[in-house]
Amino acid sequence: MKPLILINFKTYKESYGNKALELAKKIAKVKKNKYQIAVAPSLLTIKEIAQKTNLTVFSQHTDLADLGAHTGRIPADELKAIGVKSTILNHSERKIPLKFLKEIVELCKNKKIVTVVCASTISEIKKIAVFHPNYIAYEPKEFIGGNISVTEAKPEIIVRAVEAVKYISPKTKVLCGAGIHSKEDLGHALLLGTEGVLIGHAVSKAKDPKKFLEEMLI
Questions:
Q1: 91 carries an active-site annotation
Q2: Distance, first Cα to last Cα, the chain
Q3: The CATH number of the domain where 52 resides is what?
Q4: Which of 26, 60, 139, 201 could form a disulfide with 178 if both were Cys (CB 3.0 to 4.6 A apart)?
């Protein structure tokens, strides 16, 4: 499979409301022959982007809830109903207790929803790998939201993360997050054994998101 470039819109002022679809359409125009480009819009804009672009769309979260009396929840069945078949789980800004995370990953498997589960330490990676998600995104806390990539500052820790995942769950792919903002960061991440990257503010806050992404994917 092609390396995954997953862009998390979060709820930045540059990527919320009507701006979310505008940003997604710009990203959709990027040539992506070598990569699979996906976006994770805010939950209030996810349906429109899933239905009005050809991008792979991830939910920023999924709850342990079936359809029914669950106020404010995000059921996997409803995500599928609006064309969303992938989800981020356990992001540093939306942590999930491990006992519930295990059940949500299992639920998503049963619903055929692709899971990207975030982890901020090697210890957490080992605990999550036993759930056998599709991807584990490694994002060391100290580099999240910064301009220095973990691939530049601590490349050896990425190698350790990949080794830990492959030992426990060989079919689980590893993404690199935290500070990814250039073609060099992406190239290093792939050379270190990952199979893609999770990007936050670098794309959403770029002056020209399409140009920025095209230069990164050269």
A1: yes
A2: 18
A3: 3.20.20.70
A4: 139
| Domain extent at residue 87 | 4-216
Alpha-carbon gap, residue 60 to 100, rounded angstroms: 16
Sole residue written with tokens 């106020």: 71
Choice among 61, 91, 181, 188 that is catalytic: 91
In degrees to the nearest 10, what's the CA dihedral of 149, 150, 152, 156? -170
Q: Rounded to an integer, what distance in angstroms lies between the CA atom of residue 104 and that of residue 88?
A: 11
90 dihedral zone (left: phi>0; alpha: psi -120 to 50; beta) = left
**Tokens for 140?**
């060391």
Whole-number Å distance between alpha carbons of 66 and 72: 12
Q: Is 201 a catalytic residue?
A: no
pTM, 2 dp: 0.94
Q: What is the mean pLDDT of the chain?
A: 92
Q: Given the residues 22, 124, 132, 139, select the one marked as catalytic.
A: 139
pLDDT at 173: 98
State residue 218's pLDDT score: 74
Structurally, how many domains does the chain consist of? Answer: 1
